[in-house]
Specification:
Radius of gyration: 19 Å
Oligomer: single chain
Structural class: mainly beta
Shape: globular
Helix content: under 10%
Number of helices: 0
Order of helices and strands: EEEEEEEEEEEEEEEEEEEE
Strand order of the largest sheet: 1-2-3-4
Largest sheet: 4 strands, antiparallel
Distance between the termini: 22 Å
Strand content: over 45%
Amino acid sequence: SNKNRYVPLESREVEYIPNLYGLNVHFPAADRMVVYRTHFSNVASTDLEVIDIENLNNSVGFDSGSDYFQSRVSPSTDRVVEFVDGNAFGEYDLKIWDLRSESLIRTISAAFVETSLTYIDAILDFSRDGELIASAISNKDETEIKIWNSESGDLSHTIEIPDERLDKFRFNPERDEFIIVTTQGLYIYETESFGLIYELENPSNRSYVPMILSGNGKRLFLYNSRRVYTLDVEAKEILGFNELDSNIEHISTNID
């Protein structure tokens, strides 16, 4: 959009998609972005597109064929993991695909079993080298994150935080760290044995603190209501906060 003093770098024609239900954008690397789409006609259809930011060309396209699409592309944009329905009621699988050949590498069957929820909100992320995949169901009253080996499909680690609802997690793109934000606080783990190296109580004393990590992994922004807190990831300290005149719906940051 060119509103609000934001000017597009370049225009690009895209195919019109009727009945668009969901759209999400992810930047796995500085020069590439991934557009995730879910749309409906008679049945649901889902796809993603990897776009080269420099020339705005479509480098990779992928249609999962799933009735809903919760997925994550690896930093090298050669793989995608998706969270899909399993073979039995309440079972959910992880499928790992090769994006170049659009071939299925493996299925992790019954990665999660959850029968009490009316809907599932999943979170996925690749480690910076693509070797690990973190996965979780976020709309639960406790946090349970499963870390998988993307090559073997084996479960590597499980992180459990009782009585704290998960908001978001991210692998640091530049450091061997895994960052978790729950309704109660912030947790940073090293990724060798997933030991806890830093913990911070929710600084706003409110129950919901989303986060966004800068592209270089040096700054972490926690926001709630009208405040944005800045955490120095290397020093592991809050640098301060900015308070705005109106409630915050969403924030973003450039790659630096």
